[in-house]
Amino acid sequence: MFVILRAIYRLTLHPLAKFPGPFWARITSIYGMSYDLTNDRGTNPKWIESANLGEGPIIRTHPHVLHVRDLDSYNQIFRAMTPFDKHRDQYQAKFTEGFFNIGSSKVVKPYKDVYQPYFSKSSITRMEPLIHETLNTFLGKLDSASKEDGKVVDLTFGFRCLTSDTIMRYCFADEGFQTLESKEFRSPLIVKLEQFFDTIMPIIYFPKTMTWLTNQLGKLSDATQDKVAPGLAATNYIMDECKKKITTILENGGSQSTFPTIFDSWADQSKRKTEWIPSIYQLTCDAFTMFAAGTDTTAHTLTIGTWYLMKNPTMLAKLRNELRTAIPNPDSNSLKPAWELEKLPYLNGIVKESIRLGYGVPGRLARKVPAGGAIFHDQRAPAGYAICSTAYSIHMNESYFANAPEFQPERWLGDDKLELDKKLVSFSRGTRSCLGMNMAYAEMYLTFAYLFSRFDLKPTRTVAEDIEGWKDCFLPRVRKHLEVTISPATD
C-alpha cells in the first residue's frame, strides 16, 4: 500500500509533478537505474535524449531529479561562482573526499586555486619535456610492435598507460606507476582501474553500502582483495601509494624537482594564499581524482579520434598532408612543442572533434537548485532538488552541431569555429571546470600528430559498436578495446 500511495504522490502532489517525463521514471529511480547498472539497456545520457522522453527542454528523469537539455540552461548552472552546488547524492564516494566532493563553489575556490597555477597553459608548457619523454616511451613501444608481423596492440590500454604515467609523474616528480613498462600495456593497475569503473554507478546509487564494502576490503590481505573485488582493491592500492608519495613531499618541504609539481603547492606555505592545509586523506583523494580523471578521459578521447581516423582514409590523408610540413622528421625523439601543433587547422579539428565525441564526463552532473528556486524556460525548479545536464545532450544537439553523430573535423575549420568552441562542454564550465584541460590538450595534439606521422594503424577484432557504443561509468568506457596492427607509415 505504501508503494502505491508514494507513486500516486509522486505523480500528482510532488513538487516536481508538473514536469514531463516517462511514467515509470517519475515513480521510481529503478527505471533510470536500470540503464546505469545494466549493459544491455544502453546508457543514461543516451536514454535521456531518446524519443521516449518526449519533447521539452526540461524533463523529469528520476522522482527527485530534473534534466535540462539546452546550452543556455547548462551555462546558467555551470558558471563561475555558481549558486548551484554539487548535489550530495552524486558526490559521496570515499575516494573523492578532497576538492572534488566539496559542494559549494565559494568554499572550493580557494582550495582549487592552489592547484590551478600548476595546470595553467604556461605551466604545462614548462613541463612539456616530461610529456615528450613519456610520449617517446609510448611511441618506442609501438615501433617495436610494428616490427612484429601481425602483432596486435591494445591501444585502449596503451593510451591509458601513456596518460597515467604523464599525470602521475607531474603530480609527484617521480616515475609514477610506470605502467608503460608493462608487457603489451597490460599494467595490472590499469586493468584493475577499468574494473574499478564498473563500480562507479553502484557507488553513486548505493554510496553507504559501497563505502562500507571498500572499508571491509581494506582489512583483507592484498591477495584476497584482488580475488574478491579487484576494482575496489585497486582503489585502495592507489590511495595507499598516493598517500606515501604525498607524505614524503610534505615531510621534505617539496619534491625537490627541477620543475614545480602539483603537490609542492601544499609543501611550501609561501607558494599558496591559504593558511590552512587539507588533511593527508583529502590530499590523497585529490591525487586519486587526478589519476583517474587524468588517465581515463584523455585516453578515451584519443581512442575515439584514432578510431574515426582509421575508418576514414580521406581524413587521415588530409591530416598527414598537413603534418608533413609541420613535422619533417617524425622519427626524431626531439618533438615539436604542443603550442606549435595546435596552430595546424586540420589537426585542431581532429582534436576538437575527438573531444566533442569523447564527451569528458558524458552523463549527469547533479547540482542542487539554490534557495528560492531557479527559472528555466519560464518554469520554476523548486529549491533543494537535483538538476542535471549532460555533455551528451549538448554535443548531440543538431541545433548546435549539424550532423551531430558524425565525426567531422571540417566543422572546426569554418568562420564559426569560435562560436562552436562556446558549445563544447567536455571540460565543463565555470568554477568547477576541469583542472587538467590544458594538459589534456597538450597530450592530444602531440599524440595524434606523432602517432599518425609515424605509423599506419589497422583495426583488428574491433567493430564500430565496440567503440561508438560506449557505456557511461561516470567517465565513458568503450564496450571493447581498440585493437590494432601497426606498421611504419608508408605515405
UniProtKB/TrEMBL annotation:
<dbReference type="Pfam" id="PF00067">
    <property type="entry name" value="p450"/>
</dbReference>
<keyword id="KW-0560">Oxidoreductase</keyword>
<dbReference type="GO" id="GO:0004497">
    <property type="term" value="F:monooxygenase activity"/>
</dbReference>
<keyword id="KW-0503">Monooxygenase</keyword>
<comment type="similarity">
    <text>Belongs to the cytochrome P450 family.</text>
</comment>
<keyword id="KW-0349">Heme</keyword>
<feature type="binding site" description="axial binding residue">
    <location>
        <position position="434"/>
    </location>
    <ligand>
        <name>heme</name>
    </ligand>
</feature>
<dbReference type="InterPro" id="IPR001128">
    <property type="entry name" value="Cyt_P450"/>
</dbReference>
<dbReference type="InterPro" id="IPR036396">
    <property type="entry name" value="Cyt_P450_sf"/>
</dbReference>
<dbReference type="GO" id="GO:0020037">
    <property type="term" value="F:heme binding"/>
</dbReference>
<dbReference type="InterPro" id="IPR002401">
    <property type="entry name" value="Cyt_P450_E_grp-I"/>
</dbReference>
<dbReference type="InterPro" id="IPR050121">
    <property type="entry name" value="Cytochrome_P450_monoxygenase"/>
</dbReference>
<dbReference type="GO" id="GO:0005506">
    <property type="term" value="F:iron ion binding"/>
</dbReference>
<dbReference type="GO" id="GO:0016705">
    <property type="term" value="F:oxidoreductase activity, acting on paired donors, with incorporation or reduction of molecular oxygen"/>
</dbReference>
<keyword id="KW-0408">Iron</keyword>
<keyword id="KW-0479">Metal-binding</keyword>
<dbReference type="InterPro" id="IPR017972">
    <property type="entry name" value="Cyt_P450_CS"/>
</dbReference>
<protein>
    <recommendedName>
        <fullName>Cytochrome P450</fullName>
    </recommendedName>
</protein>
